[in-house]
Amino acid sequence: MLSVDGLTTDYGPVRAVNDVSLEVAPGTVTAVLGANGAGKTTLLRTICGLARPTAGHVALDGQDITRVPVEEIVRLGLSHVPEGRGVITELTVEENLRLGGLFRGRDAAPMSEIYELFPRLEERCAQPASRLSGGERQMLSIGRALVARPRVLLLDEPSLGLAPLLVAQIMALVRRLADTLDLAVLLVEQNARSALSISDRGVVLNLGRVVANQEPHELAADERLRHAYLGF
138-155, pLDDT tens digit by residue? Predict the structure, then answer.
């Protein structure tokens, strides 16, 4: 579903992503891991069109989307949940959700589908997002992305700042979304242990380059990789 081939992104003289290639199939989760500054967020921003690559290609279901405008990428079936959740606190929960369908028009998912996935959001639908907990805001961010009916979902640090119990709940949710909606999920995470526990594939970045692309159990068993790049 998602194919990245030789992707390279520069910020001025700094090469943030360096010749990265990976694939994510429908119904699977691929975790992108590495230390701060490894290029994980820039990789997602380049895939979704927010950053322009220096070289390489991104394809969605066989269609090259490398230089396609962001709004058209959303229409084609790719949604991005950025780091920090990015909800608009002055708007209600439902108003935030409806923003997710802005570029999809009649093809946007109805609120009933999102509330079925996130019953807590339905309970809070008329409340301003400012009154949500951190975990609820993360659910809102993911729900907003799902309104666009994506086939590929990019998630940037969904566990950031959450308590361990909430981290486990968010990770279980990510796994369930991939399984039940047949989504291809590309998950960027600092919490390597949690990410690997729900992933089908693990990609480790260091200074923008792929240093490992393996099954999760292989990464977890490699003591050198774990200590050098994963922090456990």
Answer: 999 999 999 999 999 999
